[in-house]
Amino acid sequence: METKSYELNDVVEMKKQHPCGTNAWKIIRLGADIRIKCEGCGHSVLIPRREFEKKMKKIITKANPES
Asked: Which InterPro entries match (predicted)?
């Protein structure tokens, strides 16, 4: 299985959309737990890394695109 590589300030798409209607989340903290912030309403959620990796669908934009 492919490991998902994500970094701080990446914008990711989750499997379920937020009640405000958007599906884009920005990673604002990395560690054992990951804090993500909704790009639509600004609500932030702290979830365990394992749960985050299961619920993340894809990376929408990278923070530092490698050329």
From this structure: DUF951
